[in-house]
Amino acid sequence: MKPILKAEDLQVAFGGVIAADRVNLTVLADEVLAIVGSNGSGKTTFVNVCTGYIKPRRGEVYFGNTALSRLHPRAITRLGIARAFQIPQLFAEHTVLENLLLAAAARRGFWRPFSAISRPCYLEEAREALGLLGLEGCASQRAAQLSEGTRKLVDIAMALALRPRLLFMDEPTSGVSSDEAIVIMEAVMGALARAGITTVFVEHDMEMVRRYAHRVAVWESGRVVAQGQPHGILHDSQIRESIAGMA
Amino acid sequence: MQHYSRKTASLAGVLFGLVFGLLPQAAWGAGERPAQLKVGVFTFVSGPAASYGMPAKNAADLMFESLNAGGGLAGVRLEPVFVDEAQGTDAVVSEFRRLVTSRHVPVMIAALSSANCLALAPVAEQLKTPMIAWNCDTHHLFLKKKYRYVFRANTSTVPEFVAYAAYLLQKKADVSRVGIIDPDYAFGHDAAVIFSETLRRFRPDSKLVVELYPRLGSPSYSTEISRLLAAHPAVIFTNFWGADLENFVRQALPRKLFSQSLAVIALGTTVFEEFGQRFPQGAVVGVLGDGWYHSPAVRANPQAQRFIKNYQERFHQVPVFPAFKMANAVLVVEAAYRRALRENKGQWPDSERLARALEGLRVKTLTGPLTLRADHDGLTDQIVGVSRNVAGSPYPVMADMVRYPGELVTPPVDADPIQWIKTLPADYLERLPKPGSYGP
Amino acid sequence: MKGPRALLWVCLAAAAVAVALASPWASFILTVALAKGLAALGVALLLRAGLMSLGHALFYAAGGYGAAYLARWLGVTDLLLLLGAGFLSATVLGLFTGAVLVRYRAIFFAMLNLAASMVFFSLVTKLYNLTGGSDGMPLPVPTMFGLKPGQGLFYLTLACVFVCAGGLRRYLDSAMGQGLGAIATNEIRLEYLGISVNGLLFVNYAISAGLGGLGGALAAIAIGHVTPELFFWTTSAQLLLGAALGGAGSVAGPFAGMLLLEGVRTAASQYAPLLWEMAMGLCALAVALFVPQGLSGIVDLPQQWKRAVQ
Amino acid sequence: MLTPIVIDGLSDAALLFLVAVGLTMVFGVLRVVNIAHGSFFALGAYAAITLGLWAGALGLSQALSYGALVLSALLVAALFGPLTERLCLRATYGRGEIAQMLVTFGIFLILDDVQKLVFGVQERQNDAPLSLLGVCNLGGIVYPVYQIALVGLAVVVAFSLRWFLRGTRAGKLVLSVVHDAEMARFSGIDTAKVSVAAFTFGVFLAALGGSLASPITGAAPGMSAEATILAFAVAAIGGLGRVEGAGLAALIVGLGRAFAVYYAPAFDRATPYLVMFAVLLFRPQGLLGVVETRRL
Q: Which residues span the domain enclosing C7?
């Protein structure tokens, strides 16, 4: 398989704390990569660097041939990299449908001052993204009124509505009951597979990793200490020990 | 989208309510003698300028009361309608329009601030409503524009500040090094030019060593006072007024500024009462006109004496000159109506006739003669003197007074004022009355 | 739902015209209030994005001064040209200040706008020879294609209000308009949708500056005079007050807010001339404490009360 | 020439600090942008002058007028602090700055008229405190001692405030509410009480600023608008909520204005705003402000 994203020699530090220490990692096209590691091992930092929220001190991330480290999140988004957040980032005062409409409009041509956002073509796309995750029922609810699980789904649906080539998901099931988590993951992963979107997800729950990841990268103190098939990695006792503290 | 139209509906209700609430309340029967004569009076009753505007409002109250007590104008009672100028120029213009069109006020005494006078004059012209400026003194008011309905019942900055310079020159004061500290707006800048140009006309060696224009309403003048002290000017000129003047004088007094330099505190008489005997001695002071409550002309005028007595009884203050300016403006309105009635055989004048009656009107005001010239500007005398404490008075009096006749210190109609100053005849100073020639 | 709304606007216009015909003063005060409403509409636009400008008097004043300078330098008296000059000068100024200020949020945005307007206030007052200082500058009685328009200014203002309100209504329904509200709730998500938040704010800042300039020019022409007071922060506070009174929720809000303010001020100066400030203050307090959504929230009140009772 | 500039700058800075410190404290504790701040400043000045004049009229020792300066600030705070907080401000907590601005602007307008009704429109002054201490000669220029003493007073206010906030139990309580109101509530602190106390204290600081400045500045209509806007500028430059920042900002603006009066008088008026603009451009949080970053 072809590499789609390549991190080379990444280094990030906050004050004295090293959050990424010479990270080299490749994401392959069409794979589902899980990132695991204990709290503070640098997983979210990696996502933040790849999506432009944090600038690395050294090193570079390439998306195809494009270097990402100097780009704004919005520029990276327009290249085809979308992101879902650990804490859902929604427009709280808008309805779910309006949230999705904004995402659809953002992809198709946002800067049209006099064309209504509720145009059929945007509506269709927004509904489609909602449908992928089974959210049709709450389309007219205000985002602020949703349950945490639904907020997570809407957050992911917005990322999906951008029709990215690569999607980062930061702990899609954290803060959600384990019953709900399975339902969410089943819906999300199914939708991603159908849409053919390369996915990187940060995950605490090894069960989820075992079920959905094609490949796993293990983080420790800002480094990738191991990567490979979920089976091999998750059975390595040393690695299990190092990530034991996280679950 | 339902809620939008409901909102719009409720807003429409609000709009309708407002709009009809504002509709004029009465129809206007023109021509005949009204039941009462409303007079618009524009002054500051709030904000920093209220320290000038309020005495004027008080004066207007007294004057209208005494006019009504004397039977009003040919039996018509007068009623002042006050407008606060502190609402801002747009509101002042709006009120002017409202008074004219909705409340049928046929004549206005407006305004205190020069900005408001300049803004209201074209409106008065447009609405064909006689307007009598009572305190604003920018000489730009009548300089380029000719008005049919706008008159000024007091003088402009030119005679006012030529008078102070002339007084210094006549007294042969040392004017080689002059320091100026004026408020930072037209009044201050204009006065500085007029004062220093007049000095330079007769003493070309007179130099401006320091020129400061602190912002209006500065709470502290410490730095400015230090600079004045360091520059050692022989003369310090200021036309601060109101709270600014009090602050400046209070802060400068302990720092001996006024013993180091001869001070010209143009509006000093307005704070005599506040400072009492602490007011700097020997400072050149005046009243921007002839509105000095203790001048021989005022003492000889029983109406003025009554006014002062009533004012002190009611407001527990002496009437400072803005009070006289307002009182005199009310007298101008009265005189104009009386003249119009006389010239129209007792028929009540419309605004056109009233405006014609104001042309060239001569009024014997509380403080002296006033003429409305051909350019509609007022012509009055200028009283200047020095501050002096005398036994038996809790606050200083004006001593060494001079009363410059208006026509001697005012440029002729249509003359460019600065050019006029620059070409004053060499014997000009000798032709003026001498300091100390007026009053005891 | 388009029908009833359009009908209401037509009724409003008819009411305004009727009042203006009944009393020339009413047409004047309506002109000024609606002109201020345009500026308040600009302020409300930024309020939607959660940004509070304490310096929008800058653009209101720039509109007035722009028109005054055109008249002073080139002797222009044509109403449309004067308006254009006011609108353009404010918009250009808005483009410059906006380019810098849209990077700031919350109280910093408010403060920087305030600082910008106060710097201009100081300079306009100070540069006496250039600006007329605190005495200000006159504007000519305007002409329209060589004719004296009389009531024309009022109708033109009304037309401006309708064009701007209608345009803005459509704009607010667009993605850009909806994006404004999104800025208030979540900028980060907007960036991660590929939208430049600062770019969007910049566009809106320019629009709001333009609206301010248009309103300022209309008011200045109606009043016939401009003074530095227009730049002072209390003018900004008044515009903000009008916008907040009306509520940022509908485009009619700022106009209603400004009309209410002018109405209160006028009524106060008629019945209690010494207490107009207090009347306006009470008005502000009442709305802030009891009608948090502004006038456009009044319709929701009975429901809220019902809920409170239950 | 430098000595008078520095002295004038310092004494101006002292006044500016006294104007701004209450505003910045209230923002720091309550996150309230208080437009009515200037009104309390002006009320403090009016109260101090009135009390001082009364004392004088009653034939009491003139030295008592120094006591009147503090007493009047206490009175204004006791009268207006709890009332304003309970009746008006409390309803706006958590409703964002716009509601707060509306409420405080409303209070500002109302108090402006109250001032006018109670104290009239003529400027009021009582310079007994100014004249009692006499004058001194510094660098060839005469200064009133009170003006120099005011610099010391401002420093005292700054340090006692620092001590209060950092060194006393009450201060720490206040700071804990600033730091995390939610947390404070969980640990059993009555945040409502702290809010009233903190706002009243802020009003006290504003009124104290006004009363201490009053021997120099007097009191007149229009004073509140002026004070509010200056306080905003100084507080924003220093970093809203930072007492030390207000001190630093007052120094910069004060010295800047003094230099402007000597070398560029055209800009003295714009100095606070130019400084504010320049500082906020490069440090939007103000000189000593802290940036709050958001975690994703």
A: 2-305
